[in-house]
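Researcher: Let's run the pair from yesterday's discussion. Sequence first, then tokens, for each.
Model: Starting with the first of the pair.
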Amino acid sequence: MAKSYPRGQHSMQGVFIFVLLGLFALMSTLMVLLGAQMYRATVDSSQKNNQDRLLSAYVRSMVRAQDSGGTIDIEDFDGTPVLCMRESFDDAEDVYVTRLYQHDGKLYELFTRLDNGFALGDGTPICDAGSFDASMEGKLLTVNMTNGDGEPCEVRVAMRCVDQGVGSRQ
């Protein structure tokens, strides 16, 4: 024989279970939303940190790569400082140049033959850069930059190459 419950007690158990499941669903949704916000904040912070380090690391690595095999000069092109790294390959007569400069809020790189024409905006945009100014004092290259957010960044590289032509033409 089945046990009978009073009519009011059975309906209260159903409501209690329904409220409990609803509360569980609400709390689960809240936890997912909070987790997504924390993840978004972490990703944004990581991207900003990577962008800040990219600008200085890129310039530093380009200069160090050219330190032993070519010449590094700073040229002025229509009021824009351009870091020029010249090199030739396998004793060929052709001289190639890698130019780093800031234009329209970006750091640009252009690799081409030295005798090819050059205009600001040529090349490949690397990352955001608000400003770019390079100077050479003896064997110390100093590049002052600002990232896309306007925060300052400075790169100083002591040139190791003694017998290569390192200088500044301004």
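Model: Moving on to the second of the pair.
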Amino acid sequence: MILLIAIAQSAAAQSPLSGAEFDRYTRGKTLFYGFDGQAYGVERYLPNRRVIWSFLDGDCKEGIWYEREGQICFLYEDRPDPQCWVFTQSGGGLIAQFEGDPMATELYEAEDVDEEMICYGPDVGV
């Protein structure tokens, strides 16, 4: 718990990542994110600012990301409204704060996750 607080505090002192910095850090990677000490989701970062997100349930959503007013915003195939985050980089990886609001959800890049991103195919049947 103390480690998570230290990471969050060090991130608060960091400058938000620009779109170019975020792209350099994420492109070609699959990153697992945690929230409040628990696994939260996984995102695969593809060329041309494309992404695939899952809440670790095998239901994957394709999307894109773009930079807007110092935030990294994501548009997914199942949501018409952008999900915008302020990303900072700490010694342990990325920290993402929803809409840059200190009272909102804060995700952190999970380290040493021994899992693969699993995406099941579309639902088939009647």
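Researcher: Give me one sentence on the second I can quote.
Model: The chain is about 15% helix and 40% strand.
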